[in-house]
Amino acid sequence: MTEISVAIVGYGRMGREVEQAARARNIPISHIITDRQKLESAKFSATDIAVCFTNPRAEAENVRYLCSRGVSMVIGTTGWQHQVPELEHIVRDNKVGLLVSGNFSLGVQLFQKMVRMAAETLAKTKVYDVLMHEWHHQHKQDAPSGTAKELAHNILDVWPDKKEWVLTPHDRAVAPHELAISAARGGAAFGEHQVIFDSEADCITLTHTSKGRAAYAHGALSAAQWLAGKKGLYTLDEMMSEWLS
């Protein structure tokens, strides 16, 4: 595996978790960047991979800047992914690598595959409806979560009667073509996602519950090691497919 050093961009809860995981795995930390000024004054090396857990309002600009410095990036910030397509040409032109995911947990990625497989099978029966619920701690800023959106994307890909996801509306019924997602914020939950397949005869519920942030941090570092030397835009699913092949 290619030797890397890690520039930790963002030093909140996840940034600290990445630092702890990197030290446990003896991965050198070249920078801990807490603000824009430190980002712009950092002297990056050829082995640096930026691992970013920052503010969704700042992430696109951070990508532009790091691209200009020739730094590849692994980004776990959520709530900004709609901007990724417009940055693809910047990543390509600067010959860096970019891997973005709403959740770097290995368990979550396997859960995504299980949900997709179940959805593809149950959609064919024409007797089940599908809906989702997710719950996170009170400090999480975006809803639904990035993981919920990725789950929804996988379901919509294989469920022909569902055309789009919606946060469960409170002023109208959910339309048959809509995949309803309800989101709760409160307490200290690291994250729980439920995908519910319901029919008049029975109900099938698939659940993933996160027990801590360590899985996200270790997953992000594994992604950084995998990304080393690669150019272009990648997904965690591509990394997982390579690992599982």
Overall description:
- The chain is an alpha/beta fold and 245 residues long.
- The chain has 2 domains: 5-104 and 213-244, NAD(P)-binding Rossmann-like Domain (Rossmann fold); 106-209, Dihydrodipicolinate Reductase, domain 2, CATH 3.30.360.10.
- 39% of the residues lie in helices and 24% in strands.
- The protein has 8 helices and 11 strands.
- The strands form 2 sheets. A 6-stranded parallel beta sheet has the order 2-1-3-4-5-11, sandwiched between helices.
- Helix 1 (13-24) packs across helix 7, helix 3 runs parallel beside helix 4 (84-93) and helix 5 packs parallel to helix 6.
- The mean pLDDT is 94.
DSSP summary: helix tally = 8
- Give the CATH class of the largest domain: Alpha Beta
What is CATH's topology name of the largest domain?
Rossmann fold
**What oligomeric state do these chains adopt?**
single chain
Order of secondary-structure elements: EHEHEHEHEHEHEEEEHEH
Whole-number average pLDDT? Answer: 94
Structural class category: alpha/beta
Radius of gyration over all CA atoms, rounded: 19 Å
